[in-house]
Design a protein that fits this description.
The structure holds 3 protein chains of 3 kinds. By secondary structure, chain B is mostly helical. In chain B, 73% of the residues lie in helices and 2% in strands.
Chain lengths: 258, 333, 293
């Protein structure tokens, strides 16, 4: 991970805050992400990881603070705007278009990205460029054989991958992955992470991965940010995090070997 | 909805004989039957429009009588105020008027889903209905407005031909073919729309509104456009309906008519493309032949609707597709 | 001055009835997250049952005994009972399915009830105006005002207080609120959710039926009153927020006031003014004044 003196922070939050009632779900967080890195966001349930991602991606509005994307203030930008700028996300509880085929799920993201969803008088099938790209993405994700299956009929592991594939199809610059291996058997996790990291690297995508499985985190993420009670507790390499007493104390018991 | 590259061979296999049958009907059946089927085709166009919202976008409207009625009354106004008798003028008026109303109502309605959407559409159509009564000097109140038989194709096809005025003959031949042609065009256009990238976006919104938003589809906008197209189709149907009926009355703005549209769409199967069409045509026959047998037609509809929801949610076409193995492969679950 | 008082009383009268209907709708939604499109028909059903029961006892007598008022609640009880039958048979099977199906089935129910009432009671309105007149009228300044109208207002206020007490001061109310906030949690804590649902639904239907029962001496029972009531209840609920009893109260009072103003100055556009109000509220505050998203 390079940290050049003038490295552009692809993402930077300044005192970002979100309350739910009286609780600080995210408490004046300053969070920076360097372009091109792959980092893990860890913490026990309720630590604020998902809320942070929800704030940045635009699912919920912030109560105070700023979000800067490549220097531009996107704090109050719409979801649509954020996607246009190049932010995409996958979901912990799989969010797919269950009655469309797997291929259509990915193709839709491509159509949308290219502004083609306005077209209502031409058949979707008659756009070979989109179809080919969608099939290519399915291939990279190892889902080519399931392209014609309806998304609701895929296995959990396949659905998790498809969820990421749909976000990836938007060709984002910054990709948030919310627990991409949750609910998946242990032996399926590594293949999924291998695919994700290789795609992210070859696409030069900056990736922020929320994860509970520490094996996955230590293996795949050169930088780890630990959150606790809405604030960042620690930020460093896997070794640094492993040696950090506060982290081990607070995250003890969240090591999942599902 | 099955993913298809153009209409599959299966569809064409039965579509062609069907179109032929439809084309020769006026020569094979009594005029009454042809006119009856015309009504069916008109309702089918309304059902197609309605189902763009329900089956493809996931929005259940209880107020589609508004657009049908607006289309019909637009025609009546064109006759009353502009003294025009051209069917093309009728269609244009119907489309423009229903587009305007749908655009307006859509802005309010598509911000909501499900319950609020449903009741809001119902309420708005009731407002129109009450306006039709209140402004009786414009709309003719309960008596309605008469509409004479129009001329077709820019005045070239008229009711008076060799042999004098023959309204039934006109309706069962020339007007029937006109309706049939418009019907076929409507079906083709809607087919393209639902299989277009736009159509996929609508289905995505139906399946998962949040993810659609996160894929860059601005849900509100797309719903509004779907609402607009849906309203136009239904308004077009209303415009086609008036010459058949000869008269337009506030009844077609009333919520019961909206209920019929919901009913025959669900009867045919709102999760398929052709279901609503079949449902509309079948319903038309049911209503015509059964209405004489019982005054409590509404109760029959209600009971059938309840049974459909509990036992046969896929409707006639949807259930048929599931029962026939070779069709099951083509049908998406 | 007395005209003003009469206007206020009229608005409160309307508000009373609307609160009962809309409150029932909101209660059901608050607990079960469903909207019964046939809710207005339960109001109509309450009206018909009461009119029929009292009419049967009244016979052709020109004057009614005030004692007959004791029979009024019959409509409310009938509506509540009907609700208790409908929920487990028609609604429960659909909780796990897409919401469209709930709307479709309750719409089917609306159609059935409309014709059922016509089947049982015929196409002509049922009237028990003799009962309405039995209470006479009182003088408000120079004008006369039917005493019965005040009864309706009192009933509405009592119902509001009663429902409030029920929801916030009883054991069952606690269970109701818990279930409405988190059904799974309540279930995990041992609450019989099915029973809570059928009870909540019956109460909501009872309220609608009570509105019908209470209004029928003044207005009679007529076909089509159900759908009209549904739409008006919807206007109240839009303004007050779906799922909120306070909202239903505030919404009902506002709607009553605006309607009274509307009729006085612009009788032609009465309904339109209400819809306009609803539209404005929807545009500014989609969840209503008190609503939960």
């Amino acid at each position: 991970m390079e940290e050049g003196r003038r490295a552009v922070n692809i993402l930077q939050t300044e005192r970002l805050t979100k309350y739910f009632g009286d609780t600080h779900a995210v408490d004046h967080v300053d969070f920076t992400v360097t372009e091109g890195e792959v980092l893990a966001l860890i913490g026990s349930n309720g630590a604020g990881k998902t809320t942070l991602v929800n704030l940045v991606s635009g699912l919920i509005p912030a109560d105070s603070g700023k979000i800067l994307f490549q220097g531009t203030d996107i704090t109050s930008a719409s979801i649509h705007k954020k996607i246009e700028l190049g932010i995409a996300r996958s979901f912990q509880l799989v969010n797919l278009f269950d009655r469309l085929t797997a291929l259509d799920n990915v193709a839709l993201a491509i159509f949308s990205r290219d502004g083609k969803t306005r077209k209502l008088l031409s058949l979707a099938e008659s756009d070979p460029a989109v179809r080919d790209e969608a099939q290519g993405i399915m291939q990279s994700f190892g889902l080519a054989s399931k392209a014609a299956m309806v998304a609701g009929g895929l296995s959990q592991g396949e659905r998790k991958l498809l969820d990421v594939a749909v976000a990836y199809a938007l060709r984002p610059r910054l990709l948030f992955l919310d627990e991409p291996t949750s609910g998946v058997s242990t032996r399926e996790k590594a293949p999924i992470m291998d695919i994700i990291t290789s795609i992210v690297r070859s696409g030069r995508i900056t990736a922020v991965i929320i994860e509970h499985d520490m094996d996955v985190v230590f293996t795949y993420c050169p930088r780890i940010v630990a959150m606790h009670q809405g604030a960042i507790l620690a930020d460093g390499t896997p070794d640094e995090i492993r040696r950090n007493e506060q982290v081990t104390a607070n995250l003890l018991g969240t090591q999942s070997h599902a | 909805m099955s993913p298809l590259a153009g209409p599959p061979r299966r569809v064409i296999a039965w579509a062609i004989p069907l179109v032929i049958a439809l084309a020769v009907l006026p020569f094979a059946a009594p005029p009454y039957q042809t006119v009856l089927l015309s009504y069916g085709l008109v309702f089918a166009i309304a059902a197609l429009g309605f189902n763009l919202l329900l089956g493809y976008t996931g929005l259940l409207s209880f107020g589609h009588s508004a657009y049908f009625g607006v289309g019909a009354y637009a025609v009546a106004f064109v006759v009353k105020y502009l003294k025009l008798e051209s069917m093309e003028a009728f269609l244009l008026a119907g489309v423009l008027a229903s587009a305007f109303v749908a655009a307006l109502f859509g802005v309010l309605c598509v911000r909501y889903t499900k319950i609020f959407f449903g009741i809001l559409t119902l309420a708005l159509s009731q407002v129109l209905w009450s306006l039709a009564f209140k402004f009786f000097w414009v709309t003719g109140g309960t008596d309605g407005l008469r509409v004479p038989t129009p001329t077709l194709l820019g005045g070239t096809v008229k009711m008076t031909a060799a042999g004098g005025q023959d309204k039934l003959g006109f309706l069962s031949h020339r007007y029937y073919y006109y309706v049939l042609a418009v019907f076929v065009i409507c079906v083709a256009v809607m087919w393209v729309i639902v299989h277009s990238p736009f159509g996929k976006a609508l289905q995505a919104i139906r399946d998962n509104e949040t993810r659609a938003e996160f894929v860059g589809v601005q849900v509100w906008h797309y719903r509004w456009v779907a609402f607009l197209i849906s309203g136009i189709y239904t308004g077009l149907a209303g415009a086609l309906w008036v010459p058949l009926n000869g008269l337009t009355t506030p009844d077609i703005l009333y919520w019961q008519f909206s209920g019929k549209i919901v009913f025959f769409t669900v009867l045919g199967g709102f999760q398929t493309f052709f279901g609503p069409i079949i449902g509309a045509v079948i319903y038309n026959y049911l209503e015509t032949y059964a209405v004489g047998h019982t005054v409590y037609w509404q109760m029959v509809l209600g009971v059938v609707l309840v049974v459909l929801v509990l036992a046969l949610p896929a409707g006639i076409v949807g259930t048929a597709m599931r029962l026939m193995p070779r069709w099951r492969r083509a049908a998406a679950p | 001055m007395d005209t003003l008082l009469i206007h206020i009383l009229n608005s409160l009268l309307y508000a009373s009835v609307m609160f009962l209907i809309a409150g029932g709708l909101s209660l059901i939604y608050g607990v079960m997250r469903i909207v019964n499109l046939a809710h207005g028909n339960l109001y109509a059903f309450g009206a018909y049952v009461t009119a029929w029961a009292i009419g049967a006892v009244l016979g052709d007598a020109p004057r009614a005994s005030v004692a007959l008022y004791a029979l009024l609640p019959v409509g409310a009880l009938a509506a509540g009972a009907l609700g208790a039958v409908l929920e487990p048979t028609l609604l429960r099977p659909l909780y796990k399915r897409a919401e469209e199906y709930q709307l479709l089935i309750t719409f089917g129910l609306l159609l059935i009830l409309e014709d059922l009432m016509r089947l049982i009671w015929g196409p002509y309105p049922l009237s028990i105006s003799a009962l309405y007149e039995a209470l006479g009228s009182l003088h408000i300044g120079e004008s006369i005002y039917p005493t019965y109208n005040l009864v309706v207002i009192v009933v509405g206020a009592a119902a509001a207080a009663g429902i409030w007490a029920f929801v916030y001061r009883t054991q069952f109310g606690v269970v109701l609120r818990a279930t409405s906030q988190n059904m799974r949690m309540a279930s995990a804590l041992g609450v019989n959710v099915n029973r809570v649902y059928v009870q909540a639904f019956s109460i909501g239907c009872f309220m609608a039926g009570l509105a019908g029962a209470v209004v029928v001496p003044q207005q009679g029972a007529v076909l089509g009153m159900g759908v009209d009531a549904l739409i008006l209840a919807f206007v109240v609920v839009v303004i007050g927020g779906l799922g909120s009893l306070e909202g239903a109260l505030v919404g009902a009072v506002l709607v009553g006031a605006v309607r009274e103003l509307g009729i006085t100055f612009f009788p032609e556009i009465e309904l339109a003014v209400l819809y306009l109000m609803a539209a404005v509220v929807l545009l500014i505050r989609p969840a209503g004044l008190f609503g939960r998203a």
